[in-house]
Amino acid sequence: MLGTIISAVAYGIVVVLSGNCFLLLQRNRGIYSNRMRLFLLIYVLVMFLFSTSSMIQSICTITLFIFRGGVGSPILTGYSAPVMLPLTIWGADGFMIWRCFVLYQDITRVPRILVIILLSLLSIISLGFGIMMFRSFGANLVGLTMVLVPISFSTLVNIILALLIVLRLIHHQRYIRKVLGADHGSPYSKVIAICVESSALIVIFSGVYTALVFQQANGSSIPFLLLPHICVISPLLIVYRVAKGRAMTTTLQPSEAVTAQIRFNNPTSNCSSENKEI
How many independent structural domains does the chain possess? Predict the structure, then answer.
């Protein structure tokens, strides 16, 4: 019951974030290309539907336990495993993997191949453990190995992806400051903070769940029920805060906009080359 109540609070945050993302992407059409804006709108909608489905499942679970004494579908009873959790993990991991591909596509050939191999490996790990979780939910086997191991590896994947993004942003920040001066790298600091904060949400809640499971505490179901919504909040925070920052640059003077825009160029490329945007 307590887990469902707290999940409802997290779902409220998802609703607010999703609404704000939709408003920013619809009202400020110039901040992204039409193709990118459409992709982000679809992504926000899909993640919102995943969170909504998880909330509906939690409500159905409580209803069954209250009015039917826990008798119902095996998916909705027992440990009340959130069946949307693997999908939300895939959505969050996929978003971070996509950002890594964009940020590292202009590096030299050998490092780029290594990054692609690493990202492909992380994608396979995330996909494989997500399928494992689906099978455990379908068989009503929410145990230490079938759920805790996939969640632990998802936490590791998020840490690695966040590190890759932060390291690339730090590289660009140092290059910009070296070329234009120390006053021209602040936008990268903001994006670094956004990435770290968003990834930290999943890492913290997954860590709390892992610790409670090992201690065999009854409260382990609370972070477990929260994880689907946390996995939605994490990428939506990035979408919202970056879109908001880009929208604000349209109101600046041209000289101010140069330092406020967040672009990722290859340091060895010409200034007129194609920009990579986050």
Answer: 1
CA atoms within 13 A on the CB side of 166: 15
CA distance 256 to 278: 19
**What residues make up the domain containing 59?**
2-277
| Distance in angstroms (rounded) separating the CA atoms of residues 93 and 53 | 19
Burial of 89 per CB tally in 10 Å (0-12, 13-18, 19+): buried
Q: Rounded to whole angstroms, how far apart are CA atoms 201 and 162?
A: 12
CA 87 from centre of chain: 12
CB 85 within 8 A of CB 126: no
Q: Residue 14: what pLDDT?
A: 96
Q: Comparing C-alpha atoms, which of 188, 171, 166, 180 is closest to residue 261?
A: 188
Question: CA nearest 153: which of 134, 135, 132?
Answer: 132
The string of pLDDT tens digits covering residues 231-269 is: 999 999 989 988 887 666 544 444 444 444 444 344 444
Show the low-confidence residues of the chain (pLDDT under 50): 70-79, 250-277
* Prediction pTM value: 0.79
Whose structure tokens read 């966040």? 162
Return the CATH number at 165.
1.20.1070
Q: Within 13 Å of residue 214, how many CA atoms lie on the same side as its CB?
A: 8
